[in-house]
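In the previous chapter we treated chains in isolation. Here, by contrast, the input contains two separate entities that must be folded as one system, with a combined length of 427 residues.
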Amino acid sequence: MSEKLLNWDEVLIGGAIKDPGNSKSYETGSWRVERPVWNPESCIQCMFCWVYCPDSSILVDENGKMSGIDYDHCKGCGICVEQCPTKPKSLAMLLEADAKGKSEEDLRKEVFSK
Amino acid sequence: MALLNELAKKKEGLVNGHRLCPGCTHSVIMRQVLAAADTDKYDIVVAAATGCFEVSSGLYPYTSWNIPWIHNAFENAASTISGVEAMYRLWKKKGRTDKDVRFIALASDGGTYDIGLQALSGAIERGHRFLYICNDNNAYQNTGNQRSSATPFGASTTTSPNGTVLQGKSQPKKDIMSVLEGHHMQYLAQASPSNWRDLMNKVKKALDVDGPTYLNVIEPCTTGWGFPQNKSIEIAQLAVDTCVWPLYEIEEGKVKINYKPKNKLPVEEYLKPQKRFAHLFKKGNEHLIEEFQKQTDRHWEWLLKREESGVSY
């Protein structure tokens, strides 16, 4: 949370908010118990994870391809893993506690090299 | 319909940071709706009724909307959007704007089936040009799972609990599609977020109609229905495959079923993973599941017959 609350005379009429999409600055990633880990090697770029993600947390590059996961906002629901169609799945859930302090590269190796 | 890669390049109309439960499909539906809308050609304005989605995406001083969004009260999403649309038409007439703007009213089942029905009926009758989307989560989930007229037969909620006397809700679900069809509107449809392509096609179609349109979307609720948060889309798919939630559209009174499951699953497949139906599987309650199946089949066969007859008005 940023923030200093507005004074009564600074609040716009009707409680309007001038800054569209400012909830982006609120990071819901701290809610997560499990985190999804992505394996770009087996990913077929079907984008099902993107279309089913409730928190717009699948990052997309300029070609419309998946480029990672937004861990600042991902709530760890696991829908992306459930819906991933590849065999074996290109996404897997890992306990947040086990992921602490490790780089994404290491996590990938740990999860997908089994 | 464009490929998902194309749609993913678009700027998102609904951003993250909203406070919906993990695994909630409210935002999934809305992201699909806004991805389908042809925002290069027109702008979208949304009016929302009170509900889960409103309280979690418009938590002052934050908003998750990248597009104009207005919230008024529980019952009047349709009236609010009527006013906005009427003003837009006046502005257009007076030459104050030359933009093409399309309007969406958004509510859950409480704000549509029960509280907002009067406002919705009025707005449709007046013929405003808007798309009304109902995210049907089968109860008042925002206040903690109280029964609504969209709650299906047998579902246990806090105000229709299962116990020694009653076994969940004893009335069947209201058929809102038939209620609204009586307004003789040009287009109304039922969709599911699990079948995104179908949902997107329907949104596109509805937004291009010059008049009121309606879209009824199933919105599996992890906390209220009682299933693991990663199963939301699967539950929606099961509702479609068991024909509990048939995907169909009514165009000028003519029914078209968009998806007929190759093998129609028994309703148990849909009921079993959900805690709110757990009591139906107790010994001695088999007749309730039979009743559920009977209601589902009756509606499905009625739809099939209507499609076959091809009548329209």
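Chain B has twelve helices and eight strands. The first helix of chain B runs from residue 4 to 8. Compare these points with the single-chain example from earlier in the chapter.
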